[in-house]
Each structure stands twice: as structure tokens, then as C-alpha cells.
Automatic annotation (TrEMBL), chains A, B:
CDD domains: HypE (cd02197). The keyword Transferase applies. GO terms for molecular function: thiamine-phosphate kinase activity. The lineage of its organism: Bacteria, Bacillati, Cyanobacteriota, Cyanophyceae, Nostocales. This is Hydrogenase expression/formation protein HypE.
Amino acid sequence: MNISPTNSAQNSLFQKMEQVRRRQGKVRDTHITLAHGSGGKAMHDLIDDIFVSNFDNPILSQLEDQASFDLANLIQQGDRLAFTTDSYVVDPLFFPGSDIGELAINGTVNDLAVSGAKPLYLTCSVILEEGLPVEILRRVAASMNAAAKNAGIKIVTGDTKVVHRGAADKLFINTAGIGVIPRGVNISAHNIKPGDAVIINGEIGNHGTAILIARGELALETNIESDCQPLHSLVETILHICPQVHAMRDATRGGLATVLNEFALSSNVGIRLFEESIPVREEVNGVCEILGLDPLYLANEGKLVVLVSKENADNVLSTMKSHPAGKDACIIGEVISSPPGIVLLKTVFGAERIVDMLVGDQLPRIC
Amino acid sequence: MNISPTNSAQNSLFQKMEQVRRRQGKVRDTHITLAHGSGGKAMHDLIDDIFVSNFDNPILSQLEDQASFDLANLIQQGDRLAFTTDSYVVDPLFFPGSDIGELAINGTVNDLAVSGAKPLYLTCSVILEEGLPVEILRRVAASMNAAAKNAGIKIVTGDTKVVHRGAADKLFINTAGIGVIPRGVNISAHNIKPGDAVIINGEIGNHGTAILIARGELALETNIESDCQPLHSLVETILHICPQVHAMRDATRGGLATVLNEFALSSNVGIRLFEESIPVREEVNGVCEILGLDPLYLANEGKLVVLVSKENADNVLSTMKSHPAGKDACIIGEVISSPPGIVLLKTVFGAERIVDMLVGDQLPRIC
């Protein structure tokens, strides 16, 4: 057969083919198949239907292998670029208060925000298990889209892989993000000084407990929901009134205890926590007592730990309280010069104990 | 018990604790456990021992939740930032000519390079299956490190997750990357014009065939190795003599056919390939004939497709041939105005057939 473009019957065939191929791709399958990861037609349709239509923005819809932005625009917003990544493997995919999609956006937004950066652009890379209902993926993508809008960021590029049934558990997401750090902001775990106040924006342990309950392995019912939320707006508000914040971090996997241990080691200082000041819901304490867990190590997904000089502490605290994401903010501890690298907890009974870095594993696949 | 820092016995205890915790973390386990993904001590040791020591650079070793760079340095190198991501799920992890670690670096380096960008910084996020031998992870990290050095990029931040045995297949890697696009370079799948020449830098199908053979499902032995290589230097050389290149892309998953279909649709042009000009190894053709595969759809990991005006074609071709990554470069096709959106292949017998976008799946987990 010799197909020549001059033949009119053939031209008509070509036109029909082109129309079919240009049509906005639609996924007709009800479940993910290996073809959706092949790089071919099925994958293009999946990307069009689930991701591009959901995350609709001009950079993504170019469908180049990379997104690109003018550096001149970035440099107007600050003098440094922040760059971060996280993979999300939380089980179950949907849980009280949130889901893996929202988590994958907020988690990376928060990793940028705690450097003081304004989060701007995120990637979205998914690993799908063959057999995953397409409807699940659609719900997760819609949730990512809503979270992206809420956080004011754009999803600009992505990747889709499919593995055989049993080679992954349903759905894993990776997001990487970039943001711009404003001039004059210098937030680092290495900046902490004795005398600094330790401030947190609310209750700890809600996310970890919500996941634990959602797994259904405990015959418990509670109202506890994940605290998953973006923190960039709260951070911006704090930096507006106090650009001299020493350190900030969101207390996620490993909990408050892990973040404070990282701080103590990085700045070579001690940290003393006041147990009675740390906000923990009664239900969270109850679940912890039953299971022998410690709320200090439970994961959070919307908790900001702020280290600021004693002089600025009250100002920062009242500013945080005026923000919806910080209304339950409180001072929970102080930085001391000795013992360096150690976190101490002054218990409600007046005794002091060491809060070490988490040894072993409390709760796998929490984020 | 009341631990007071004034007690000298306690102070000595604190000092010992601090020494232990400051010691460069070493992984003593032989296999990955859930604790390595907990956010606690085991994870910090794993990151120190496997990643930070391997990828040693001052940005990563800060161990903040995000890396940061001066925008002023970036803007000296160009006017646009390129940003990309890919997850890597290739099976097996090690195969003739390369492995998942090298692939995860070169794949993302190449996605940046084909925009004309100089690749600069990469993230590294791993999802590990409980029970993975630590030695495997160490080999993969060493391979990533060697590839990063070879490509002149830095791995600046990362993430580690561990899932239960059976919830992932050994090891998945995600890398995201940023680079800077030099002023005056404007490479896009939308820029292609009728008359353009289609150039490729060498043999197609080697990576796909190497993986297929490595899986051991065929009783075949060949010398075929993956073509996994970074393409940034070849791209830089091409742009140096011809900044007006219209489009470039690396032909990975979905093969040469997929890239050319994407090009044809994006620029609304036709593309005619000359079968006799397309370099395919005899062994690759042999494997394809046995299995009913088509080399045009087989994955590559070091193949650059360049679309350039007819006037610049010879100059670009000879420049590519002078570069080690382009020594087998050749012109394999031409861009035609009609039929738009369609790729045609002029076969060795003189007939023409349509090379459609891949339908279904040739080979899962190829990258």
C-alpha cells in the first residue's frame, strides 16, 4: 500500500484520524491498566482527562517535558529560590478531614513555607497500581486541584507510571515544589538561641490519630480529623510583623519531638517543653494511653513550630492567634543553653524527662 | 525524677548522649525496616549514611526541609527556569548498561536538557519496600552519585518513605529537577515547520530490548546494553552552533514514534520517516520480530530527536557527529505540511504506512 497525501479518499481518512486524535482525551476504562503507563494513547488520554483538565493552567497544558518560567518574575518576589520534594504513601487514601491528594499539595507547600518562601509551582508524579479504580484517581486529582487553588500554587508538570497489580499499594504521589524567599528573611534550624520561645499553632497528634482510627484496626470511634492545612498564609502573616523569626518547621512525621530534636542538634542548644502548655485533645491522649503511644511523636499535617526571641514572642503569638490557621497558638517551651542537643519535658507533675528522637516506628505510612 | 542540668553526673550523661547522637549516622541493619521511614533516629541514620555521605554537598548537608539558592546566580545563566519531574519504577533495578539510580538522574537531566536548559539541581525521593537489602540501596545511591557527577548536577534535597512488604516492589525513585534556559533559546514542540529535518543521535530500541532480556523471560542472550546517558552536553554543543533549533525531545517511554506523534500534533504538521535511515541494531530487530514488537515504540534513555530547518540540518548533523553522545547521528525524516498531525513511514520497500501513537502497552516498567 502506498499512501499518498494527494489521494482524496486518503485525505478524508487522515482528517478523520486527526479529529479523533485531537479530541480532548477521555478515559473510557473503569480501572487503571498497564497501558495507562505506556507513554501512548491511553496515557495521553488519562493525563488529559484526569490531570490537565483538573489542574487547568497554561503552563501545564503546553505538555512539554518540562515547565518553564521567567526568572525576572521570580526575582521580583525575593532573592532566593526554595526547592523541596516529598512522596506520599499514606494508607488509607481517604481519611477523616483529608486525603492523599490534599496532603500531597499541603505537605510540599508547607515545606516551602517554613523557609519563609512564597510557594509558587508544584509538580505531580503518580505511581498507580494496575486495577486502581479510575474514579479514585479522579477524586484524588480533584482534591489536589482544590488544595492547589486554596494554597495559591500551580501544578505545572507531572509524570504517570503504572506498575503491575501487587507491585504498589493503590496509589503513591510525589510532589516537588519551588517558591521564592523574600529578601531579608533568614529562617534556619541553625539560628536558634538560648532564651527563644517555642510556639506552636495548635493541637498536636490529630493527623496521626485520625489515620490510626481510619485504618479500622481499633474498635474506636472518635471525632478526630486530620489537621491537614496549608501554612503559607500563617507564615506570611508572622513574617510580616516579625521578619527576624529564627526557625520554623512543620511538625509532620515523627511529630513535635522530632522537629525539636532536629532544632536542638542543629543549633547546639537545649529545649525545655512545658507539658501542661502543649495542646492535646482528650481523645488523642486517650488513644495514646490505650496503645502506648506518645502524642509528642504523632504526625501532624498543619502544625507550625516557630522559634523566636523572647522579646518578639508575645507579638508573634498574638499575630498567630489572629489568623485562622493559628487561632489556638501558644508558647509551649523555651530554648536553654544546656544541655546542648537535648530536649527536656517538664511534666505536669513537675519532674523533667528527656524527649529523645523517635527510636523505632510508631505508625508507618502516616503521610 | 527531676533532671536538673546542674547535677554533674547528669551533665556527663547528657554529654555522652549528645556525642552518640552527633556521630555520623550509620545503618547497622542489613535490610530496610519500617523504622527507616519513621522520621526518627533510624531514618536520620539511613539518610546520613546512604544519601548525604554519597551526594555530599553543602546544600544537602544543611538538612533543612528545602534547599535554597540565590536567584542572582541563576539569572546570570539565563532568563528562564525549567522545572520537571519523573518517577522511576524500572524492573529489574539493575540491567545491562545501567540501573535505576543512573536512570533516575539521566532521565530528569535529559527532560531539562531538551528545553535547552543547563540542568543544575535535582531532588531524590525514594519509596522503599520493607525488607529491601540495604546493600541494594547503597549501590543505587552510589550509581546516582556517579551519574550526578557525570552530568554536573547536584542532588540538593530528598525524602525517604518505607512501605510494608508487598506494598511496593523493592524500590521506586522520583527525581525532580531545575535548570536555567539561556537567553535566546526557544525550543518547543509547537515550533516545527514543514521542511524541517528530523535528526536522531543514534540507534533506537536498545534500552527497551536490554530491559526485556534482563527480565529473563526470554531464553535469549545478546550484547545489547541500555543507551542510558545524559544528553545535556550534546544539547549544549548543538545550541552553541545553532541556537535556532525548533524542537528537541528525548525519545524515552513510547519510543521514537510517540515523540514524533507528539511533535506532529503540537505543531500541526506531518512527519515522514525513512525506514532505511533509522538506525536499529540487528539484534534489536531480531528480538522485535520474535516478539511482534516494533522498534519505533521501544524505549530509549539516551536518544535525542532534533527538529531543525533544512538549511541548518547539515551543520547540526556534523556537529552532533563530533560529540561522543552524537557520533551515530543521522537524518531520519522530514516534516511535511500534509497530512497534519500524522506520522508516516516510508518503508524499505517504498510503501508508506501510518505510524500511530502507541495503543495498548508494549512493555511495562521500562523506566
